[in-house]
Write a structure and sequence with these properties.
about 325 residues; alpha/beta; Rossmann fold; 2 domains; 7-stranded parallel sheet
Length: about 325
């Protein structure tokens, strides 16, 4: 079988090649060709525009992550199946709990040095910090990531509110309350921490705007490990700049660098420069273990395709 890994994940071609063996040809491409049919048994990519999608001639498009919003699904030729892969929930949950603990413990207040000369002064002026036990975290999106975050938050004694599309009751060991996203405005005044872990789609784009941010308690923390566009960009900047929103840990951004194009800042506003922002370059999931899990899953799905077995994690089939 011919497998093409295109774009950001192309450097992982050797990893997949080692998993699949010599019976498969794995090609790494920086980008799709500008014209002509794109033929392969499997294409692995996290972004496919309408033009490239229409020129695909493959049986399986495998997204090397969970989100497929950068793939123009309606443009894919009939018979093309699209699958995604998870495995990122554990590191993202750990990243999120780190952000929550950092907000409470405020390590930036700790002394820069602790030696004989400084000890007496800094000991006398020890700052207080907060606790997360008893605090309320609202988690918008309660899939793989949201549930792993909830498990860890409950272990720290936090009160968890799960905000889902339906609000259907779920596992009480994970959350004390399950509410529909339509009642989000009523939840926000209760949330010391608001975590965004939902997919980006028509319903969630711009879900958090100025009015929602204003409903959060003063000093609240926002953690976004979903997609930047779930939060209105200018509203976020203004809320942080004026410190109406206490702090934000942002791992997802409104603009990303693209090969062959001029450098861009993460946002059209200097959000990343604000002192109450922890800005990270979309790294919350990136661990060696994640790559092992994801590429192992994709290799298994490719084997299933070759053997005519049902594929796992099918999210779209073009008709």
């Amino acid at each position: 079988m011919l497998i093409k890994i295109v774009g950001l994940h192309a450097p992982n071609a050797p990893r997949l090649r080692a998993l699949l063996g010599d019976a498969h040809e794995v090609q790494a491409l920086d980008a799709f060709p500008a014209q002509g049919e794109i033929r392969a048994d499997v294409v692995i990519a996290n972004a496919i525009d309408a033009d490239a999608a229409a020129r695909l001639r493959c049986r399986l498009v495998h997204v090397p992550g969970a989100g497929a919003e950068q793939i123009v699904l309606p443009a894919l030729p009939a018979g093309t199946t699209v699958c995604n892969v998870h495995g990122h929930e554990v590191p993202i949950a750990e990243f999120t709990l780190h952000a929550i603990l950092e907000h409470a413990l405020q390590p930036w207040q700790y002394p820069a040095r602790l030696d004989a000369e400084a000890f007496a002064q800094v000991y006398a002026a020890r700052p207080q910090h907060g606790e997360v036990a008893g605090r309320t975290v609202a988690i918008v999106g309660f899939g793989h990531i949201g549930q792993e975050i909830a498990r860890r938050a409950r272990a720290f004694g936090m009160h968890v509110i799960a905000v889902t599309r339906s609000g259907k009751p779920g596992d009480p060991a994970l959350a004390q309350a399950f509410v529909p996203v339509g009642t989000l405005d009523a939840v926000l005044p209760l949330a010391d921490v608001l975590v965004l872990a939902c997919p980006l789609d028509a319903a969630t784009r711009g879900l958090i705007g100025a009015s929602q941010l204003a409903l959060l308690p003063a000093g609240a923390l926002l953690v976004n490990v979903a997609r930047a566009e779930v939060v209105m960009e200018e509203a976020l900047y203004e809320a942080l700049k004026t410190q109406r929103l206490g702090r934000a840990a942002l791992d997802v951004w409104y603009q990303y660098p693209k090969k062959g194009q001029p450098p861009v800042a993460p946002s059209r506003h200097p959000i990343h420069e604000l002192p109450n922002v922890r800005a990270t370059p979309h790294i919350s999931a990136i661990t060696p273990a994640l790559l092992e899990r994801r590429y192992g899953f994709m290799a298994d799905n490719i084997a299933r395709l070759q053997q005519g077995q049902p594929l796992l994690n099918v999210i779209h089939h073009a008709n």
